[in-house]
Specification:
alpha/beta; Rossmann fold; Biosynthetic Threonine Deaminase, domain 3; nine-stranded antiparallel sheet; six-stranded mixed sheet; 39% helix; branched-chain amino acid biosynthesis
């Protein structure tokens, strides 16, 4: 494709050279760090764009584009739409250049990104929340630009923006850590992938460029298959920084020549990659920033011995989302599975199950409420460093005569919906137990303090990663005398647990519905 007499790829390379002089007025080069993971695998190098002036790579393209505005364009101001990071780049440039900017953002934009735009832009920026999606914000921003005469600064479908993003690849080339066998580049609209892949292919023609998209937002994959950018009907927004319905026209023209293959990753795989970045580099990545590593881990065996480049494209994540990711099954370090198992509703059977089929496994989540006189259906999420141990669990249950069902990813498990029928209980007692999070501590409490004295009627426990585990336990006794004897004999502190307290009557009434 030619523009102004030159093919687009040549113009892009030329503009990346020009961008070298412009972007470093606004920020400094970011580090390239080695991520070491245990076991065999590739040599992974991480471009730390999360350490940039706006904690994301988008400052490069926005600043490069706004640096070439004419005096008349600067006076008229700029308009853009952003899911967060591009808006921060525009805000940074607006403040530095003294340009007024109106930034349209979806109403669902994380507060951390809104606050960052205000921080970087000061009185030069105005945030306008419009629509529930990035596309709706784009439409509103285009209407504003057409009516006001302001310059629209596109987040990705612009030559200077693509060239600005390409400067991060220039820093990689100049780092001395290359050449690389492969680069895994996340794609939203495609501006970063286009600029970076063009520059890397220029210096290392043999490098494999892998485009990475979320499985529910693969707009570039759809474009490459269709031969042109096409709109997706729906877009998953877990990786909000790459949640783009339609790939940009200019990035598409570059990427169809430079990208060797595409990979899609799931939200669970991205969550695991976020954890690996934290454990390996103490890097807090936003979901879209970890997509490249997620794809590398999917192909880890095939990449053994190879030198691989990934880009942590940003760290602008809402603190609440970070907490949810940390608690998700997807971020688990080990293989895990959620199962519901049927056992006879009689004292001691729960411990028998734990002692036999679940022996040696790490129970990360335990949910149970009594709903039937004859049968109990506790739900467990179990993990293990050995995936084979998880795969063998169903066979062990069947051999022992237990009926089970797979609830991995089930909605009721994820939302911790634990039913409990109060009419089936005789003399219930509920305990708040804080125990030391080590192998056998919870089992020992149930075995030494509860076995033979009461029937387990409720259990609510989820591993949090702390040294202390916390569980809400329901016990049912056959008489008031037995319940009173238990409450009088249980120590508030004991071997293996830090505290055991009886919940108040109001909490008990809410749990059993009376």
């Amino acid at each position: 494709m030619e523009r102004d007499g030159l093919p687009l790829d040549r113009r892009l390379r030329q503009e990346i050279l020009f961008a070298r002089e412009r972007v470093y007025r606004f920020g400094e080069a970011t580090p390239l760090e080695h991520l070491v993971l245990p076991g065999p695998g590739p040599e992974i190098w991480v471009k730390r764009e999360d350490l940039s002036p706006i904690k994301a790579y988008k400052w490069r393209g926005a600043c490069n584009r706004m640096a070439v505005l004419s005096a008349e364009e600067k006076a008229a101001g700029v308009v853009t739409a952003s899911a967060g990071n591009h808006g921060q780049g525009v805000a940074l440039a607006a403040r530095s250049l003294g340009i007024d900017a109106r930034i349209y953002m979806p109403r669902s934009t994380p507060r951390v990104k809104q606050a960052a735009v205000r921080h970087h832009g000061g009185h030069h920026v105005e945030i306008i929340l419009s629509g529930d999606s990035y596309d709706e914000a784009v439409s509103a921003a285009f209407e504003d630009a057409a009516a006001s005469g302001a310059t629209y600064v596109h987040a990705y479908d612009d030559l200077q923006v693509m060239a600005g993003q390409g400067t991060l690849a220039d820093e990689v080339v100049l780092s001395g850590h290359g050449p690389f066998d492969a680069a895994y580049l996340q794609i939203g609209g495609g501006g970063m992938a286009a600029g970076v892949s063009e520059w890397l292919k220029t210096y290392w023609p043999e490098i494999e460029i892998v485009g990475v998209e979320g499985s529910g937002q693969a707009s570039m994959k759809a474009a490459l298959e269709a031969g042109k950018p096409v709109g997706l009907d729906q877009v998953d927004i877990f990786c909000d920084g790459t949640a783009v319905r339609k790939a940009g026209a200019l990035p598409f023209d570059i990427c169809r020549e430079t990208i060797d293959r595409m990979e899609t990753v799931s939200n669970a795989e991205v969550s695991r990659a976020i954890r690996l970045l934290w454990e390996g580099l103490r890097c807090v990545s936003e979901p879209s920033g970890a997509m490249g590593l997620a794809a590398v881990m999917k192909n880890r065996e095939a990449l053994v011995g190879k030198r691989v480049l990934i880009v942590v494209s940003g760290a602008n994540i809402d603190f609440l989302q970070l907490g949810l990711i940390a608690q998700s099954e997807g971020s688990a370090q080990n293989a895990s599975r959620s199962l519901r198992v049927r056992i006879p509703e009689r004292p001691g059977t729960m411990l028998e199950l734990l002692d036999t089929c679940f022996a040696g496994l790490n129970i990360t989540d335990f949910q149970y409420g009594k709903t039937d006189e004859a049968d109990a259906w506790p739900a467990f999420t179990v993990g293990s460093e050995d995936p084979a141990a998880i795969e063998a669990l169903p066979g062990k249950l069947e051999a022992a005569g237990f009926v089970w069902e797979d609830l991995t990813g089930a909605v009721d498990i994820a939302f911790r919906a634990i039913p409990l029928r109060g009419d089936l209980l005789s003399y219930p007692l509920f305990l708040r137990l804080d125990f030391y999070e080590r192998a056998g501590a919870l089992h020992d409490f149930l075995d030494k303090r509860v076995r033979g004295r009461a029937n387990l009627c409720y259990f609510n426990y989820r591993q949090s990663g702390e040294r202390i585990g916390r569980a809400l336990i329901g016990l049912d006794f056959t008489s008031e005398e037995e319940r009173s004897h238990f409450t009088g004999s249980i120590a508030e502190h004991g071997e293996g647990y830090r505290s055991c307290t009886i919940v108040d009557d109001a909490t008990r009434a809410r749990l059993i519905g009376n």
